[in-house]
Amino acid sequence: MLPTVFLSEVVGTAILVLLGCGVVANNLLAKTKGHGSGTLHINWGWGLAVFAGVVVSYKSGAHLNPAVTFGVMASGAKEFVPGVPVDAASIATYLAGQMVGAFIGAVVCWLAYKQHFDEDAPEGYKLGVFSTGPEIRNYGWNFMTELIGTFVLVLFILGLGHWTGGQLGWLGALPVGLLVVGIGTSLGGPTGYAINPARDLGPRIAHAVLPIPNKGSSDWAYSWVPVFGPIVGGVIAGLTAGFLLPA
Description:
Elements lengths: L1 H27 L10 H18 L9 H9 L4 E3 L2 E2 L2 H25 L1 H5 L4 H8 L8 H26 L8 H15 L9 H13 L15 H20 L3
Antiparallel strand pairs: 1-2
């Protein structure tokens, strides 16, 4: 079962990142059809990216996000999906699948926009396609922003699972995607709302290794914020769900 979980998480996370980073590339990079279309365009693109990723990764429960994995674990669940117990091996499988998928999705996005990455563009725009960054750099407050946004996301996902019993099928992916749009429009202003460590770290690594002209720094000094902020937010959401949501 674990190989299936790994592949499911790789494919789902790759699609999520491909479409999510793709909408940012379409918005930021020069000579694209969507150039300058604005943050609402990006928010909806990320929401639909999450929807698509969740739909194709139902075999693993569609975590696609280490914060979700840690949140499920913190909630006291015994299994991630039927037949996959919450243990060290399964946790490692989910995290590995998410990171590999995020890296692959970012590389495929670069391939799709290769000619536009080769054009002259600010270094920050090229990095912004791959990973998040703060508008006002204050690591403590940036961390808090990511924690809060991810808390909302993970608590909602856990609550949705409790109330529906996982019986909505593909319709269960729709409210999650819509919530991602909502988080982006309401809480995305300070940091660009990573709310997913794999979504930020995997593409940041891709940015560091890909042969992108004049790409500048990958901003590793900030990289810990969109990793640990969401993990802490996910764990707090899981602990909260363990007390407040119906069994």
